Amino acid sequence: MKNRTLKFDLLSNLIVSTLFTTIIIILFISVLLSTYIKREQQFKNDALSNAVNLQIESYFTDIENALKGLQDVLFTYEMIQDSNKDEYMVEFLEVNQNFSEVYLLDLDGKVMKTYPQNMQHIGLDYSNFDYFKTAKSKPDHIIWSNIFYEHYTKNPLATVSLKSDSVVLVGVLCLENFSKLVDSINVDVDNMIAITDSTGTYFAHTDQSFVDLREKDPYITQMIASGDFSVKKVRVSERTMFLSATYFEDAGWSVLIFQSTDSIKRQIAYNIAVILVIALVALALSLYFTHHKVTLIAKRLLELAKGTQIISQGVYDYTLEESKYVELNELSRNFKTMSAEIQNREAQIKDNKEEMQRMNQRLENLVYERTLELEKSNMELAQTIIDLKHTQNILIQSEKMASLGQLVAGVTHEMMTPIGSIVTLCSYMVKELEQIEADFTNQHLSKSELELFFKDQMESLLLITNSAQRTKEFVSSLKKTSVDQVSMEKREFEICSTVEDVIRSMKVTLKNSNVSVDHHCQVDKPILSYPGAITQILLNLMNNAIKHAFIDRATGKVTITTSLEGSTVTLVIYDDGIGMTPEVRKRLFEPFFTTARDQGGSGLGMSIIENLVTTLLGGTITCDSKLDKGTSYTITFGL
Fold first, then answer.
1. CA angle 25, 26, 28 (to 5 degrees)
2. Which of 3.90.1150.10, 3.30.450.20, 1.10.10.10, 3.40.50.150 is the CATH number of 177-260?
3. 20 to 30 Å CA-CA from 541: which of 219, 490, 562, 620?
4. CATH top-level class for 487-638?
5. CB 109 within 8 A of CB 124
6. d(Cα 93, Cα 564) in Å, to the nearest integer?
7. How far is it, in rounded angstroms, from Cα 276 to Cα 349?
8. What is the pLDDT at residue 386?
9. Bridge-partner residues for 631, per DSSP?
10. What is the mean pLDDT of the chain?
11. 408 phi and psi, to 5 degrees?
12. What's the confidence (pLDDT) of residue 226?
């Protein structure tokens, strides 16, 4: 780590702390100014909104009053004769330039009269227009329409309608006048004013392009639906603006005022710039005076450092000069006290060093003696481990031989049955042959007796052949099981066939014990693993089940399920025997643990199985057992 001077550190820390404080103050003042400016701007916005709304509301009122006045003149008081109505209407349209045309519709919606006169419109049907339906159902109510396209001229129109007796008076509004009205209102260049119908369609806008494109305002329909007309911050043409809206419920039209936030941002930026300049000037003055003071303190500290160097050279009576700063004088006194303490400590260290050397020598001798004793103990421990492993191998081999002895006893019984049948049949065939030979010699042999003899001989030969075939299959299965049990080589084999061979090799033992075995195989292809290990595992588990699972039971059943999922083989061996207690289950795989010590059990069977599964097969074995509910072993290993 690179060293720095105290002067540099003090100045840099002072600059950082001053800058940090200045930034905090600037931010605080900026927030206060921003809040104040925004509040002032909101007052201006509200004043502008009220002024604009009053102008436009007056404009709407003038239109409604003109239509009501026309109704009174033409129909209510019939102040003008029919012959003078055309002339009056011409003057009306010249005075009220907010209307481009006036239609008189009958109650069926058909045009009876137009002003100015247009014969092409006479008889046209407007009965399907919403404004006609509404005006017809609400007599003496001014009905404002939405912007629509007149289906004969295809021009955008808006109307105000009023029903009087049997006539609906329709005034076609001059939409250009609304745009002129919006343009005549004095607003900042950054602000915009717009008028929409109830669908949000612009028909007057400070920016005429919105009207030309017949765009719909995305906000007004939501505001009308929710009834919330509070000021909202929105995005218009990539600019952030405040939207204030006034909804004229009778007309269904809305006046929107978009006021830009740019003026607020400019004012805030200007105020922040002024504050920043003031803060920088204050910071510069502060740094100047601080630098002068820090330089004086650093000079004094360098003098103190020089004094410590002199003391470090052994001049313990060196005296530092007094300073006008209390802290530095305190430091000088502490240096003097320290030099005295160092002098005393050096004397103590010299005395302690000799004592330490003597203790180190004694400790080295003691460590050497203990090391020799530890090496001797390690050698004895290593020999003990070798002896234990040798003993374990002997016990494991004994366990295998015990299993093999049981297997041989069962095999002997299984093979004696077919061999005995063969010997009996051969003796019978010899006697029959001797009798036939004697009858033939004495010429007492008839054709029927000869045919009966051949038939008996053929049946006997078939029985001998079947018994010999059974013996051959059993010997083949036994040979394969024995080879697999002895060999621990990895090779490709059919696991289902291996399981079946083990079951056949234990046929006699299972039969004598009244235990049946079901094998459910779900593997349809060879696997690459250790058949010898699998054979040994199955033999041990099945022998365990025969010995321990069915005590005091007349019959029992073992179910073996073999499955393959991906590259993982699963063997499940389940017996419906008496099960185990939790204590026995907990110690099941411990070496030399057995519940049949008085019957000659070594307690290594399950330990061997676990060792084969985890070490050779690289898999896992779990046991699930409950009293009177049977025992299930689940073995999984990868290929």
1. 65
2. 3.30.450.20
3. 490
4. alpha beta
5. no
6. 95
7. 61
8. 75
9. 575, 625
10. 79
11. -65, -40
12. 77
